Amino acid sequence: MSDLVVVRKEGLYCVPGDFYIDPWRPVDRAVITHAHADHARTGHGHYLATADGAGILRARLGEIRLDALRYGESVTHNGVALSLHPAGHVLGSAQLRMEYRGEVWVASGDYKLEQDGTCAPFESVRCDTFITESTFGMPIYRWQPQAEIFGDINAWWRRNAGEGRTSVLFCYAFGKAQRILHGLDPTIGSIVCHGAVTPLNALYREAGVALPPTLAVSDVEDKSVLRQALVLAPPSAAGSPWMRRFGDYSDAFASGWMRLRGSRRRRGVDRGFILSDHADWPGLLSAIAATSASRIIVTHGQIPIMVRWLRQNGLDAGSFDTEYGGEEEVETDKEHEEEKGAGGHA
Ligand SMILES: [Zn+2]
Ligand SMILES: [Zn+2]
């Protein structure tokens, strides 16, 4: 039987279904796994995504022709049965299951296994062929349990607040910021969000995700409140005039990349918290094993390392060359645009 999914210049393509998965060039029919900028692009004729992610997709892409599926709900298109299953990455993120003539393929999008309370938890889906991301697909990437990371973040904030110094935590505005909010201890002080983060918080709250109360800088009348506050801002705010109001502050960056030696220094921040919305190395391996797939196709990330390991462990492994990844860089650009568009509004 020929392959159900191939890679074309527009993106991953389901041959019998005649649709694309997270295409990077404009196509007629696109299934979108989640709303990060490298996976969800403008210009497609029709979009299919999860109901949980529909609000964010519309907010980011504007007017689009979007059909939404609930998790687990199935539709048949050109004889291919499609369904979307939680990927545990960000609100609305999904793995796409495709079944055609008894053969099952799953495209993972981005995923993480640890349940974080801000999106539906990852669900493992059995398949014959699994197309997996590999952003952190190297043995050095092993995440600490998130409760420990949040303990560290709250302790850093509490110490700064005790010394009358604002805590500024840089992180990506969509997904990471809301996950951090969910893990903060709001009894320490006020939580202030940059204008790039606030609209995403609103979309999460609309979707029923519990987040602590947050303020915009312009809401803070008594400026002494800022000295005990934690500020969440996108990386592009670092070094911008927006930061001047905080006077003497301590800053930090939260990302999986903080695992890399030197990345904290490169960012020029006081602290680095290793917190990723992607699976670590053991997570990738256990997710792959749980699918029972005999064939694995690796996309963006550490392709050669993953493929070699999988082959050494008896799996039929290959790769697809995609234009995903560098997601965090893409996110930064997008946030920068949003800030410029907002005319410097906080
Ligand atoms: Zn993503
Ligand atoms: Zn990705």
Structure description:
There is one protein chain. With 346 residues, the chain is of the alpha/beta class. It has 2 domains: 187 residues, Metallo-beta-lactamase, Chain A, CATH 3.60.15.10; 128 residues, Metallo-hydrolase/oxidoreductase (Rossmann fold, 3-Layer(aba) Sandwich), CATH 3.40.50.10710. The chain contains 8 helices and 18 strands. The strands form 3 sheets. The protein has a 7-stranded mixed sheet, with helices on one face. The C terminus is likely disordered. The chain binds zinc ion (ZN) (2 copies). One zinc ion binds next to loops. It comes from Herbaspirillum hiltneri N3. This is RNA procession exonuclease-like protein. InterPro entries: MBL (IPR050698), RibonucZ/Hydroxyglut_hydro (IPR036866), Xnuc_lig_assoc (IPR026360).
Describe the structure in brief:
By secondary structure, the protein is α/β, with parallel strands linked by helices. The chain contains 8 helices and 18 strands. It has 2 domains: 5-141 and 277-326, Ribonuclease Z/Hydroxyacylglutathione hydrolase-like (Metallo-beta-lactamase, Chain A, 4-Layer Sandwich), CATH 3.60.15.10; 146-273, Metallo-hydrolase/oxidoreductase (Rossmann fold).
Annotated CATH architecture of the largest domain: 4-Layer Sandwich
Gyration radius (Cα, Å) is 20 Å
* Secondary structure: helix percent: 10-25%
Distinct small-molecule ligands in the complex: zinc ion
Strand order of the largest sheet: 7-8-9-10-11-17-18
- In total, the number of strands is 18
Structural class: alpha/beta
| CATH class category of the largest domain | Alpha Beta
- What name does CATH use for the topology of the largest domain? Metallo-beta-lactamase, Chain A
Instruction: Calculate the terminal CA-CA distance, rounded to whole Å.
Output: 56 Å
- Uncertain ranges: 329-346
Please tell me the overall pLDDT. Answer: 92
Q: Please report the number of helical segments.
A: 8
CATH superfamily of the largest domain: Ribonuclease Z/Hydroxyacylglutathione hydrolase-like
Largest sheet: 7 strands, mixed
Q: Sum up the overall morphology in one term.
A: globular
- The domain count comes to 2
What percentage of the residues does DSSP assign to strands (E)? 15-25%
Order of helices and strands: EEEEEHEEEEEEHEHEHEEHEHEHEH
